[in-house]
């Protein structure tokens, strides 16, 4: 039995957990290839025009698995923690996957509701084991391993360092945008090539991010966006980065809300230079390089500062 997993969206965050679950069951996991122009184009053609770029990319990865897997695993991620909810596209992702093409393999869609303290959502993962023909014991062991891997997934890493005067740029965005080189147009690599140290929100303390997000004038209910907003505020208020780039995708509802909220908050505080870059399927590398060069050149001209002091640069759409 070959279980396909699209290398897109939440695979960039929970992929290791899903792969370890399938490995414990003893079934073969088949990943779609790294995002490419062909995958993006296929997704753009078949996905709904009004969906965001990451969903179009996800659709392209689904189509690549069509002839390579017996079933496809698309978890329905309901929440990332207590008191949070997911973007609506994650809730409806399995249904969109089934409607994408008539000849796709069957879609397994176990729920992931990490905010459910009763863990009722684990019943779906037991059903996945039975659907794949695995025994009760093997399934129970795999589910227990899944829970343990999810608990260890967000353990504090403590890898963020204080700003030592070197040029450092915080790149804030959804995992599936920032960590996919094709979607982000190799932004992290380009920043490093320009002599800047790039930090992502995974390198910030989740506990500190929650504390900082609680200070916002509006409560953020989306789990990933709350983590993102808290990381940006932490970077800004502790002067741990020279500037911040907010990477979002066109037609992303939560992203547009959080981006505007952060711009207002950082502008009010007179904080670090802040630039928004919006990507879609038409974005070109030349436009990104120009924006990054201008931003890093501007940061080099800004003198070393103390926490909560600097300027705000309005966002640009590439």
Q: What class, by secondary structure content?
A: alpha/beta
Task: Tell me the overall shape.
Answer: globular
Number of strands: 11
Give the ordered list of helices and strands: EHEHHEEHHEEHHEHHEHHEHEHE
How would you concisely characterize the structure shown here?
With 318 residues, this protein is of the alpha/beta class. Helix content is 46%, strand content 14%.
How would you describe what is shown here?
This protein is an alpha/beta fold and 318 residues long. The chain has two domains: 2-153, Rossmann fold (3-Layer(aba) Sandwich); 168-317, Rossmann fold, CATH 3.40.50. Helix content is 46%, strand content 14%. It is built from 13 helices and eleven strands. The protein has helices spanning 11-25, 37-46, 53-64, 88-91, 93-100, 122-131, 136-153, 175-178, 187-193, 206-213, 223-238, 253-269, 285-301; strands spanning 2-5, 28-31, 71-73, 76-79, 107-108, 111-113, 168-173, 197-200, 243-249, 274-279, 316-317. Strands 8-7-9-10-11 form a five-stranded parallel beta sheet, with helices on both faces. A four-stranded parallel beta sheet has the order 2-1-3-5. A two-stranded parallel sheet has the order 4-6. α10 crosses α11 (223-238) and α11 (223-238) runs parallel beside α12. The chain is globular.
Q: Helix and strand layout, with pairings?
A:
Blueprint lengths: L1 E4 L5 H15 L2 E4 L5 H10 L6 H12 L6 E3 L2 E4 L8 H4 L1 H8 L6 E2 L2 E3 L8 H10 L4 H18 L14 E6 L1 H4 L8 H7 L3 E4 L5 H8 L9 H16 L4 E7 L3 H17 L4 E6 L5 H17 L14 E2 L1
Parallel strand pairs: 1-2, 1-3, 3-5, 4-6, 7-8, 7-9, 9-10, 10-11
């Amino acid at each position: 039995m070959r279980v396909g997993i699209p290398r897109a969206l939440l695979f960039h965050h929970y992929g290791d957990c899903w792969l370890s679950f399938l490995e414990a069951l003893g079934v073969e996991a088949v990943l779609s290839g790294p995002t490419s122009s062909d995958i993006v184009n296929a997704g753009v053609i078949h996905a709904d025009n009004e969906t965001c770029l990451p969903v179009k990319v996800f659709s392209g990865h689904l189509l690549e698995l069509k002839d390579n897997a017996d079933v496809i695993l698309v978890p329905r991620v309901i929440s990332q923690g207590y008191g949070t909810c997911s973007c609506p596209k994650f809730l409806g992702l399995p249904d969109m996957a089934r409607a994408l093409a008539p000849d796709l393999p069957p879609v397994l869609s176990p729920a992931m509701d990490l905010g459910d303290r009763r863990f009722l959502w684990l019943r779906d993962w037991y059903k996945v084991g039975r659907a794949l023909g695995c025994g009760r014991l093997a399934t129970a062991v795999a589910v227990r391993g899944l829970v343990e891997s999810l608990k260890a997934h967000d353990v504090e890493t403590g890898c963020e360092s204080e700003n030592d005067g070197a040029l450092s740029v915080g790149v804030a965005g959804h995992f599936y945008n920032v960590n996919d080189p094709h979607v982000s147009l190799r932004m992290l690599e380009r920043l490093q090539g320009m002599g800047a140290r790039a930090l992502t929100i995974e390198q910030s303390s989740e506990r500190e991010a929650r504390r900082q997000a609680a200070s916002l004038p509006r409560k953020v209910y989306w789990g990933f966006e709350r983590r993102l907003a808290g990381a940006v505020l932490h970077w800004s208020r502790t002067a741990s980065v020279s500037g911040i780039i907010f990477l979002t995708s066109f037609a992303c509802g939560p992203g547009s809300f959080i981006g505007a909220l952060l711009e207002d908050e950082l502008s009010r505080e007179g904080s670090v230079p802040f630039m928004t870059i919006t990507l879609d399927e038409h974005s070109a590398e030349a436009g990104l390089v120009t924006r990054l060069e201008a931003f890093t050149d501007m940061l080099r001209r800004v003198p070393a500062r103390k926490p909560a002091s600097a300027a705000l640069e309005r966002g640009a759409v590439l």
